[in-house]
Design goal:
With about 400 residues, the protein is an alpha+beta fold. The protein folds into four domains: about 130 residues, N Utilization Substance Protein A, Chain:P, domain 4, CATH 3.30.1480; about 70 residues, Nucleic acid-binding proteins (OB fold (Dihydrolipoamide Acetyltransferase, E2P)); about 80 residues, K homology (KH) domain (GMP Synthetase, Chain A, domain 3), CATH 3.30.300.20; about 100 residues, K homology (KH) domain (GMP Synthetase, Chain A, domain 3, 2-Layer Sandwich). About 30% of the residues lie in helices and about 25% in strands. It contains twelve helices and 17 strands. Strands 5-6-7-9-8 form a five-stranded mixed β-barrel. Strands 1, 2, 3 and 4 form a four-stranded mixed sheet that branches. Strands 10-11-12 form a three-stranded mixed sheet, with helices on both faces. Strand 6 and strand 7 form a beta hairpin. The chain is elongated and about 115 Å long.
Protein backbone atom coordinates (compact mmCIF):
# COMPACT_ATOMS: atom_id res chain seq x y z
CA UNK A 1 0.00 0.00 0.00
CA UNK A 2 1.17 3.56 -0.57
CA UNK A 3 0.06 7.17 -0.62
CA UNK A 4 -1.93 6.65 -3.83
CA UNK A 5 -4.06 4.10 -2.06
CA UNK A 6 -4.56 6.50 0.84
CA UNK A 7 -5.86 9.09 -1.64
CA UNK A 8 -8.17 6.48 -3.16
CA UNK A 9 -9.52 5.60 0.27
CA UNK A 10 -10.12 9.28 1.01
CA UNK A 11 -12.13 9.63 -2.19
CA UNK A 12 -14.07 6.43 -1.49
CA UNK A 13 -14.95 7.58 2.02
CA UNK A 14 -16.12 10.95 0.70
CA UNK A 15 -18.14 9.46 -2.16
CA UNK A 16 -19.88 6.85 -0.04
CA UNK A 17 -20.25 9.12 2.97
CA UNK A 18 -18.62 6.58 5.30
CA UNK A 19 -15.92 6.83 7.94
CA UNK A 20 -12.41 6.28 6.56
CA UNK A 21 -11.44 4.46 9.74
CA UNK A 22 -14.14 1.89 8.98
CA UNK A 23 -12.49 1.24 5.60
CA UNK A 24 -9.07 0.74 7.23
CA UNK A 25 -10.61 -1.69 9.71
CA UNK A 26 -12.33 -3.51 6.85
CA UNK A 27 -9.00 -3.95 5.01
CA UNK A 28 -7.28 -5.16 8.17
CA UNK A 29 -10.06 -7.69 8.80
CA UNK A 30 -9.87 -8.75 5.15
CA UNK A 31 -6.14 -9.40 5.37
CA UNK A 32 -6.68 -11.48 8.50
CA UNK A 33 -9.47 -13.40 6.76
CA UNK A 34 -7.16 -14.06 3.81
CA UNK A 35 -4.49 -15.48 6.10
CA UNK A 36 -6.97 -17.73 7.84
CA UNK A 37 -8.03 -18.95 4.42
CA UNK A 38 -4.37 -19.53 3.50
CA UNK A 39 -3.82 -21.72 6.52
CA UNK A 40 -7.19 -23.39 6.30
CA UNK A 41 -8.20 -22.07 9.70
CA UNK A 42 -11.54 -20.86 10.91
CA UNK A 43 -12.48 -17.69 12.73
CA UNK A 44 -11.62 -19.25 16.08
CA UNK A 45 -7.97 -18.53 15.39
CA UNK A 46 -7.37 -15.25 17.20
CA UNK A 47 -3.59 -14.87 16.97
CA UNK A 48 -3.38 -13.35 13.45
CA UNK A 49 -3.19 -9.57 13.29
CA UNK A 50 -3.01 -6.96 10.54
CA UNK A 51 -2.01 -3.33 10.98
CA UNK A 52 -2.13 -0.46 8.48
CA UNK A 53 -0.33 2.84 8.92
CA UNK A 54 -3.07 5.45 8.47
CA UNK A 55 -0.60 8.02 7.13
CA UNK A 56 1.64 6.06 4.75
CA UNK A 57 -0.55 3.13 3.82
CA UNK A 58 2.15 0.62 4.78
CA UNK A 59 0.89 -2.55 6.38
CA UNK A 60 2.08 -5.69 8.09
CA UNK A 61 0.46 -9.03 8.83
CA UNK A 62 1.74 -11.14 11.66
CA UNK A 63 0.93 -14.09 13.84
CA UNK A 64 1.39 -13.96 17.58
CA UNK A 65 3.23 -17.18 18.55
CA UNK A 66 4.12 -18.52 21.96
CA UNK A 67 7.70 -19.60 22.61
CA UNK A 68 7.87 -23.27 23.70
CA UNK A 69 10.78 -25.04 25.39
CA UNK A 70 12.12 -26.98 22.39
CA UNK A 71 11.49 -27.41 18.70
CA UNK A 72 9.89 -30.79 19.47
CA UNK A 73 7.27 -29.02 21.57
CA UNK A 74 5.94 -27.09 18.58
CA UNK A 75 2.52 -28.65 18.22
CA UNK A 76 0.95 -26.00 15.95
CA UNK A 77 3.32 -23.98 13.74
CA UNK A 78 0.76 -21.18 13.53
CA UNK A 79 0.61 -20.77 17.30
CA UNK A 80 3.91 -22.14 18.63
CA UNK A 81 7.52 -21.23 17.91
CA UNK A 82 10.80 -22.78 19.00
CA UNK A 83 13.26 -20.77 21.12
CA UNK A 84 15.77 -20.67 18.26
CA UNK A 85 13.29 -19.25 15.75
CA UNK A 86 11.91 -16.84 18.33
CA UNK A 87 15.35 -15.43 19.18
CA UNK A 88 16.00 -14.83 15.49
CA UNK A 89 13.13 -12.35 15.64
CA UNK A 90 13.48 -11.14 19.24
CA UNK A 91 16.91 -11.90 20.75
CA UNK A 92 15.63 -11.60 24.32
CA UNK A 93 12.68 -14.00 23.81
CA UNK A 94 12.14 -16.46 26.64
CA UNK A 95 9.97 -19.55 26.98
CA UNK A 96 6.36 -18.47 27.41
CA UNK A 97 6.85 -15.12 25.68
CA UNK A 98 4.73 -14.11 22.72
CA UNK A 99 6.54 -12.94 19.59
CA UNK A 100 5.15 -11.43 16.42
CA UNK A 101 6.04 -13.41 13.32
CA UNK A 102 5.48 -11.55 10.07
CA UNK A 103 3.44 -13.18 7.30
CA UNK A 104 4.40 -12.16 3.78
CA UNK A 105 1.48 -11.03 1.63
CA UNK A 106 3.15 -12.77 -1.31
CA UNK A 107 2.30 -16.04 0.41
CA UNK A 108 -1.43 -15.34 0.09
CA UNK A 109 -3.10 -17.46 -2.58
CA UNK A 110 -5.54 -16.19 -5.17
CA UNK A 111 -8.42 -17.72 -3.21
CA UNK A 112 -7.23 -16.00 -0.04
CA UNK A 113 -6.99 -12.70 -1.92
CA UNK A 114 -10.52 -13.10 -3.26
CA UNK A 115 -11.74 -13.84 0.26
CA UNK A 116 -10.08 -10.64 1.47
CA UNK A 117 -11.67 -8.66 -1.36
CA UNK A 118 -15.14 -9.98 -0.51
CA UNK A 119 -14.71 -9.03 3.14
CA UNK A 120 -13.74 -5.48 2.15
CA UNK A 121 -16.67 -5.06 -0.23
CA UNK A 122 -19.14 -6.44 2.30
CA UNK A 123 -17.88 -4.09 5.00
CA UNK A 124 -18.05 -1.10 2.67
CA UNK A 125 -21.64 -1.95 1.74
CA UNK A 126 -22.58 -2.28 5.41
CA UNK A 127 -20.97 1.05 6.27
CA UNK A 128 -22.65 2.70 3.31
CA UNK A 129 -26.06 1.44 4.46
CA UNK A 130 -25.37 2.70 7.97
CA UNK A 131 -24.30 6.10 6.63
CA UNK A 132 -27.46 6.42 4.51
CA UNK A 133 -29.60 5.31 7.46
CA UNK A 134 -27.99 7.91 9.72
CA UNK A 135 -28.43 10.60 7.06
CA UNK A 136 -32.15 10.02 6.63
CA UNK A 137 -32.78 9.32 10.31
CA UNK A 138 -31.68 12.89 10.87
CA UNK A 139 -34.25 14.05 8.33
CA UNK A 140 -37.18 12.27 9.91
CA UNK A 141 -40.13 14.69 10.28
CA UNK A 142 -38.64 16.94 7.63
CA UNK A 143 -39.25 17.54 3.93
CA UNK A 144 -37.09 15.97 1.23
CA UNK A 145 -37.32 16.15 -2.55
CA UNK A 146 -37.61 12.95 -4.53
CA UNK A 147 -37.96 11.86 -8.16
CA UNK A 148 -40.64 9.36 -9.16
CA UNK A 149 -39.09 6.05 -10.20
CA UNK A 150 -42.01 3.72 -10.77
CA UNK A 151 -45.14 2.28 -9.24
CA UNK A 152 -44.88 -0.71 -6.90
CA UNK A 153 -48.43 -1.98 -6.82
CA UNK A 154 -50.42 1.03 -5.64
CA UNK A 155 -47.37 2.65 -4.04
CA UNK A 156 -44.78 4.92 -5.64
CA UNK A 157 -41.02 4.45 -5.40
CA UNK A 158 -39.10 7.74 -5.12
CA UNK A 159 -35.41 8.30 -5.69
CA UNK A 160 -34.25 10.40 -2.74
CA UNK A 161 -30.60 10.46 -3.76
CA UNK A 162 -28.66 7.72 -1.98
CA UNK A 163 -31.81 5.82 -1.08
CA UNK A 164 -35.33 5.15 -2.28
CA UNK A 165 -38.47 6.20 -0.45
CA UNK A 166 -41.90 4.59 -0.52
CA UNK A 167 -44.95 6.81 -0.95
CA UNK A 168 -47.82 4.57 0.10
CA UNK A 169 -51.15 4.88 -1.67
CA UNK A 170 -52.75 6.00 1.61
CA UNK A 171 -50.20 8.87 1.84
CA UNK A 172 -50.91 10.25 -1.63
CA UNK A 173 -52.97 13.40 -2.16
CA UNK A 174 -56.32 12.34 -3.63
CA UNK A 175 -56.46 13.02 -7.35
CA UNK A 176 -52.69 13.34 -7.83
CA UNK A 177 -51.13 11.33 -10.64
CA UNK A 178 -47.41 10.73 -10.86
CA UNK A 179 -45.21 10.05 -13.86
CA UNK A 180 -41.63 8.84 -14.04
CA UNK A 181 -39.27 11.73 -13.52
CA UNK A 182 -41.76 13.94 -11.62
CA UNK A 183 -40.14 15.79 -8.71
CA UNK A 184 -42.09 15.81 -5.46
CA UNK A 185 -41.58 17.25 -2.01
CA UNK A 186 -42.53 14.70 0.62
CA UNK A 187 -42.60 14.49 4.40
CA UNK A 188 -40.40 11.78 5.95
CA UNK A 189 -42.59 9.71 8.26
CA UNK A 190 -40.18 6.99 9.34
CA UNK A 191 -36.81 5.44 8.57
CA UNK A 192 -36.20 1.77 9.36
CA UNK A 193 -32.98 -0.21 8.97
CA UNK A 194 -33.25 -3.41 6.90
CA UNK A 195 -30.65 -5.87 5.52
CA UNK A 196 -31.15 -4.31 2.09
CA UNK A 197 -30.70 -0.77 3.35
CA UNK A 198 -32.93 1.84 4.98
CA UNK A 199 -36.66 1.71 4.30
CA UNK A 200 -37.95 5.29 4.13
CA UNK A 201 -41.67 5.96 4.40
CA UNK A 202 -42.84 9.34 3.11
CA UNK A 203 -46.12 11.21 2.89
CA UNK A 204 -47.85 13.89 0.82
CA UNK A 205 -50.91 14.09 3.10
CA UNK A 206 -49.40 14.72 6.54
CA UNK A 207 -50.35 18.11 8.04
CA UNK A 208 -46.72 18.71 8.98
CA UNK A 209 -45.85 18.79 5.28
CA UNK A 210 -47.67 22.14 5.14
CA UNK A 211 -45.66 23.43 8.09
CA UNK A 212 -42.33 22.39 6.54
CA UNK A 213 -43.19 23.94 3.18
CA UNK A 214 -44.01 27.25 4.84
CA UNK A 215 -40.77 27.06 6.84
CA UNK A 216 -38.89 26.75 3.55
CA UNK A 217 -40.74 29.65 1.95
CA UNK A 218 -41.17 32.09 4.85
CA UNK A 219 -37.97 33.48 6.32
CA UNK A 220 -39.78 34.78 9.40
CA UNK A 221 -40.90 31.24 10.28
CA UNK A 222 -37.41 29.80 9.77
CA UNK A 223 -36.02 32.56 12.03
CA UNK A 224 -38.62 31.93 14.75
CA UNK A 225 -40.27 35.34 14.43
CA UNK A 226 -43.51 33.81 13.18
CA UNK A 227 -44.87 30.52 14.52
CA UNK A 228 -47.41 28.12 13.07
CA UNK A 229 -49.42 27.25 16.16
CA UNK A 230 -51.97 24.88 14.61
CA UNK A 231 -52.74 23.12 11.32
CA UNK A 232 -55.90 21.45 10.05
CA UNK A 233 -55.83 19.77 6.69
CA UNK A 234 -57.96 17.83 4.25
CA UNK A 235 -55.30 16.85 1.67
CA UNK A 236 -55.92 17.91 -1.90
CA UNK A 237 -58.84 20.12 -0.93
CA UNK A 238 -58.16 22.68 1.79
CA UNK A 239 -55.99 23.51 4.77
CA UNK A 240 -56.18 26.05 7.57
CA UNK A 241 -53.18 27.27 9.53
CA UNK A 242 -53.13 29.54 12.58
CA UNK A 243 -50.04 31.73 12.86
CA UNK A 244 -48.62 33.92 15.61
CA UNK A 245 -45.94 36.62 15.59
CA UNK A 246 -43.39 37.04 18.38
CA UNK A 247 -42.68 40.52 17.05
CA UNK A 248 -45.55 43.02 17.28
CA UNK A 249 -44.17 44.82 14.22
CA UNK A 250 -44.48 41.72 12.03
CA UNK A 251 -47.87 40.71 10.62
CA UNK A 252 -47.86 36.89 10.72
CA UNK A 253 -50.53 36.48 8.04
CA UNK A 254 -48.86 38.96 5.72
CA UNK A 255 -45.49 37.28 6.20
CA UNK A 256 -46.96 33.92 5.17
CA UNK A 257 -48.85 35.34 2.21
CA UNK A 258 -45.85 37.25 0.87
CA UNK A 259 -45.61 39.94 -1.76
CA UNK A 260 -48.43 39.45 -4.27
CA UNK A 261 -49.14 36.10 -2.61
CA UNK A 262 -45.83 34.63 -3.80
CA UNK A 263 -45.05 32.68 -0.64
CA UNK A 264 -48.41 31.03 -0.10
CA UNK A 265 -48.66 30.57 -3.87
CA UNK A 266 -45.50 28.48 -3.90
CA UNK A 267 -46.92 26.20 -1.20
CA UNK A 268 -50.29 25.93 -2.96
CA UNK A 269 -48.53 25.02 -6.21
CA UNK A 270 -46.49 22.31 -4.51
CA UNK A 271 -49.68 20.84 -3.01
CA UNK A 272 -51.43 20.61 -6.37
CA UNK A 273 -53.50 23.80 -5.89
CA UNK A 274 -54.78 22.86 -2.45
CA UNK A 275 -56.53 25.90 -0.94
CA UNK A 276 -54.91 27.35 2.18
CA UNK A 277 -56.55 29.69 4.71
CA UNK A 278 -54.12 31.59 6.93
CA UNK A 279 -55.56 33.08 10.13
CA UNK A 280 -54.16 34.71 13.24
CA UNK A 281 -53.74 32.60 16.35
CA UNK A 282 -55.31 34.06 19.50
CA UNK A 283 -55.02 32.81 23.07
CA UNK A 284 -58.63 33.91 23.57
CA UNK A 285 -60.70 30.90 22.45
CA UNK A 286 -63.58 33.09 21.28
CA UNK A 287 -61.34 35.15 19.04
CA UNK A 288 -59.54 32.07 17.79
CA UNK A 289 -62.79 30.36 16.80
CA UNK A 290 -63.93 33.53 15.05
CA UNK A 291 -60.65 33.70 13.10
CA UNK A 292 -60.77 30.00 12.27
CA UNK A 293 -64.19 30.34 10.61
CA UNK A 294 -62.77 32.81 8.09
CA UNK A 295 -63.78 33.81 5.45
CA UNK A 296 -67.22 33.87 7.08
CA UNK A 297 -68.23 36.86 9.21
CA UNK A 298 -69.07 36.11 12.85
CA UNK A 299 -71.42 38.05 15.12
CA UNK A 300 -70.75 36.28 18.42
CA UNK A 301 -68.79 33.38 19.88
CA UNK A 302 -69.65 31.83 23.25
CA UNK A 303 -66.69 29.58 24.08
CA UNK A 304 -66.44 27.20 27.03
CA UNK A 305 -62.74 26.51 27.66
CA UNK A 306 -63.54 23.71 30.11
CA UNK A 307 -65.85 21.74 27.85
CA UNK A 308 -63.94 22.79 24.73
CA UNK A 309 -67.16 23.83 23.01
CA UNK A 310 -68.09 27.00 21.16
CA UNK A 311 -71.48 28.32 20.13
CA UNK A 312 -71.24 30.67 17.16
CA UNK A 313 -73.72 33.13 15.71
CA UNK A 314 -73.31 34.34 12.15
CA UNK A 315 -75.40 36.61 9.88
CA UNK A 316 -78.17 34.81 8.04
CA UNK A 317 -76.43 35.20 4.71
CA UNK A 318 -73.14 33.84 6.11
CA UNK A 319 -74.40 30.52 7.50
CA UNK A 320 -73.60 28.49 4.39
CA UNK A 321 -70.18 30.10 4.09
CA UNK A 322 -69.39 29.46 7.77
CA UNK A 323 -70.39 25.82 7.50
CA UNK A 324 -68.74 25.36 4.11
CA UNK A 325 -69.31 22.79 1.40
CA UNK A 326 -70.27 19.50 3.07
CA UNK A 327 -69.37 21.13 6.41
CA UNK A 328 -65.68 21.50 5.48
CA UNK A 329 -65.10 25.03 6.82
CA UNK A 330 -66.65 24.27 10.20
CA UNK A 331 -64.89 20.89 10.36
CA UNK A 332 -61.46 22.39 9.67
CA UNK A 333 -62.11 25.23 12.13
CA UNK A 334 -62.95 22.67 14.82
CA UNK A 335 -59.72 20.77 14.17
CA UNK A 336 -57.68 23.95 14.09
CA UNK A 337 -59.00 25.21 17.44
CA UNK A 338 -59.65 21.92 19.23
CA UNK A 339 -63.20 23.09 19.99
CA UNK A 340 -66.51 21.48 19.13
CA UNK A 341 -68.23 24.25 17.19
CA UNK A 342 -72.00 24.69 16.91
CA UNK A 343 -73.04 27.34 14.35
CA UNK A 344 -76.41 29.05 14.05
CA UNK A 345 -77.64 31.92 11.97
CA UNK A 346 -78.79 35.14 13.57
CA UNK A 347 -82.42 34.12 13.08
CA UNK A 348 -81.89 30.64 14.51
CA UNK A 349 -80.03 31.94 17.57
CA UNK A 350 -82.78 34.13 19.04
CA UNK A 351 -84.58 31.21 20.70
CA UNK A 352 -81.61 28.89 21.13
CA UNK A 353 -80.24 28.51 24.66
CA UNK A 354 -76.56 29.35 24.88
CA UNK A 355 -76.55 31.46 21.73
CA UNK A 356 -77.81 34.64 23.40
CA UNK A 357 -75.88 37.18 25.39
CA UNK A 358 -78.43 37.19 28.21
CA UNK A 359 -77.86 33.46 28.79
CA UNK A 360 -74.48 34.35 30.26
CA UNK A 361 -75.52 37.20 32.58
CA UNK A 362 -77.74 35.97 35.45
CA UNK A 363 -79.84 32.97 36.36
CA UNK A 364 -82.98 34.18 38.17
CA UNK A 365 -83.88 30.63 39.15
CA UNK A 366 -80.62 29.79 40.90
CA UNK A 367 -79.83 33.34 41.98
CA UNK A 368 -76.18 33.22 40.97
CA UNK A 369 -74.15 35.01 38.33
CA UNK A 370 -72.82 33.14 35.34
CA UNK A 371 -69.20 33.63 34.36
CA UNK A 372 -68.80 35.92 31.34
CA UNK A 373 -65.68 34.27 29.98
CA UNK A 374 -64.01 36.00 27.00
CA UNK A 375 -66.52 38.84 27.01
CA UNK A 376 -64.58 40.78 24.37
CA UNK A 377 -65.48 38.20 21.78
CA UNK A 378 -69.22 38.40 22.50
CA UNK A 379 -71.72 40.59 20.70
CA UNK A 380 -75.39 40.84 21.50
CA UNK A 381 -77.54 39.08 18.93
CA UNK A 382 -80.71 41.06 18.00
CA UNK A 383 -83.90 39.05 18.27
CA UNK A 384 -85.88 38.29 15.11
CA UNK A 385 -89.11 36.54 14.38
CA UNK A 386 -87.65 33.78 12.17
CA UNK A 387 -88.15 30.22 13.49
CA UNK A 388 -85.09 28.55 15.06
CA UNK A 389 -83.37 25.74 13.20
CA UNK A 390 -80.29 23.77 14.18
CA UNK A 391 -76.99 24.67 12.55
CA UNK A 392 -74.19 22.29 11.77
CA UNK A 393 -71.05 21.57 13.64
Amino acid sequence: MNSELIESLNLLAKEKGIDKEAIFEAIENALVAGCRNLYGRNENIKNIRAEINRDTGDYRIYAEKTVVETADDVMDPLEDISPEDARAIAPDAQVGDVVQVEIKSADLTRIAAMSAKNVILQKIREEERHAVFDQFSGRRKNVVTGTVNHYVGGNVSLNLGKADGILAESEMIPGERYRNGDRLKVYVLDVKSTPKGPRISVSRTHPELVRCLFENEVTEIADGIVEIRSIAREPGSRSKIAVWSNNPDVDPVGACVGMNGDRVGAVVSELNDEKIDIVCWDDNPGNLVQNALSPASVLAVFADPYEKTAKVVVPDDQLSLAIGKEGQNARLAARLTGYKIDIKSESQAKDAVGFRYEDYEYSDEEGEEYEEGYEESYEEVPAEEAPAEDGQE
